## 1
Amino acid sequence: MIGTAYAVDADQVRVDPNKGQFQTVYGNALPPIGYVEMCAREPKECRAIGGKPVHLALTPDRWNLVYQVNTFVNGKIAPMSDEELYGKPEYWTFPTDAGDCEDYLLLKKRYLEGLGFPSEALLITVVLDEKNQGHAVLTVTTDKGDFVLDNRRNDVLRWNNTGYTYLKRQSAEDPRQWVSLTKKAPANSGTVAAGAAKK
């Protein structure tokens, strides 16, 4: 699936531990409707496994795998909206050749789990982008901070370097439960994105 390891030094992602590299959780949140509908169609993808929060040791090998999976899926899947693909505003599924932001992250999550990453460290996350529009990314929780895999860029950035406003994400304890990443509830949290996210 993925070629030679991309040479990235894990030292590049080391920062002052007091700079807010970990996201703060503010309580419970409602899951996106597209996720709820996907779980109803494919319950095995959303089953609870009795997990707990994980800060995965970010070794150089793991960092390379994260980068490679992000780059590989971004290149493999063409950006296209759910409306264009399925005739509905929100439809979460594993893409084969085209999809929108949540489809990219589902495929990345599956690949990383197949490479031995624990699902408790791979959390679906909903944000507002620079234009205040809904978007979804995959958060990898590590001992060096929370990093984001995004279909809009191949670089893997720490969450607070993306320019996004973080709304909510899956709970590590139970993927069907979601937690809030903001102190105030978003006005519209039912859907993720109105259109395809461009790379």
## 2
Amino acid sequence: MAREDKAAVAELAEAVRSGPARQANDALKVLYEVGARNPALVGGQCPVFIEALKSSNNRKVWGAMTALDAVAEQRAATLVAELPAIIEAADRGSVIAKDHCNSILVKLARAGYGDKAVPILVERLKHAAPNQFPTYAEQTATVLTPEQKPGFLAVLKDRLGRIGQDSKRKRVEKLLRKLNG
């Protein structure tokens, strides 16, 4: 893919769309790996990735979410329009899908869609798994506006007492100190 082979990207996208499960999974892996290095080359395949989010194959779902994460900043307007499908896939998906969903939302906020992305990030924090909560909170803190900060802080304070693992609680306490300082 070093030569930006658009035909190969299209062929891989077709394999994702209509190939057998193993071939589709492999094609998605290649596409998200290429996307990590050259998002512009695979960004035009967002419709294929969005379609793959609806799959019953969990591997395909998190592969598609990984690919969308790779192109999120370059294709922000496209992904904002597809947020319901992205959120739905993350909600029924694996931790990997949830992690990439959070990353996509942070990137959309950075790309100028904070008004849409940050409220979703804060809402998702309320129900985030304890293991992911500190990471998601730290990521969300990087895109907060002053108006969004009070609601975010309220979620952190509400969840703080229910964090069982010492190291994770300390990360959230540190974040609270940083934001209140």
## 3
Amino acid sequence: MSEPTDHYFSAEPTAPDERRPVTVRLAGRDHVLTTARGVYSPDRLDPGTAVLLDRAPDPSPTGDLLDLGCGWGPIALTLALRSPAARVWGVDVNRRALDLARANAVAVGVDTVRLVEPDDVPGDIRFATLWSNPPIHVGKAALHALLERWLPRLADDGVAHLVVQKHLGSDSLQRWLNEHDLGLACTRLASAKAFRVLEVRRR
């Protein structure tokens, strides 16, 4: 059972930093990575992320790619494995998660990933691909503020894919993205295992 969600979006989790191995399949290969308490889904690759990795189209082969809310790194590492010529950014506020993700990048053998806090991403970068299992549990206002900050940073031909559980508001989030004045269009790309994958592009 996953650790309760009241710590994973904190900068400094209060749960003990008890590290553990977990085997996950990324880009067609099994990898033994490290997780810990106080981060999102410390015991396994969570089902939503698994759906995103399975259903999202190929990421851009070049340019800057973003994993928004990277946690211990499965999405960012997959982007790096699938697009070795691209530069991948993994962003999270949870410093323990970033530390784990950096160790996991070494374990997987990728050196094109920058795992940083949000303010450490240069403001002029535009993203060719953005993948995210966004932190729904932070609340609607905080979630909307997060998406308002990052989705407008898509490149002109960039595309974002977000995975959201149906009963946690995927349809209402899709409506909000289409109705809110961000210059973006959101469509439903896929549905699987109680999750929806939303695709976001510039209008």
